[in-house]
Amino acid sequence: MASSSRGFRNRDEYRKQKELEDLRKEGKVAPEKDEEGNDINPHIPQYIARSPWYLSTGGPSLRHQKAETVKDPEVVARKLDVWYERGKKAGPAATKFRKGACENCGSMAHAATDCLERPRKVRARFSGVEIAADDVISNVALDFDGKRDRWNGYDSKEYKKVIQTHERLEEERRRLRGEKMDEEFRQGDATDVLMEKKDEGTRVTVRNLRIREDTAKYLRNLDVNSAYYDPKTRSMREDPTPEVDPDDKDYAGDNFVRHTGEARGFAGLQLFTLDATERNAGVPHLQAQPSLAEAVYREFQNKREAVQDHRRQETLEKYGGTEHLVSSDVVQAMGQSEAFVEYTRDGRVIKGVEPARPVSKYPEGILELNHTNVWGSYYQDGRWGFACCHQTVRMAYCTGEAGRKAREEADRAMQESQVSRLSRQETDVMTQQSGFVAETKPG
Question: In its keyword annotation, does this UniProt entry include Nucleus (predicted)?
Answer without folding.
Answer: yes
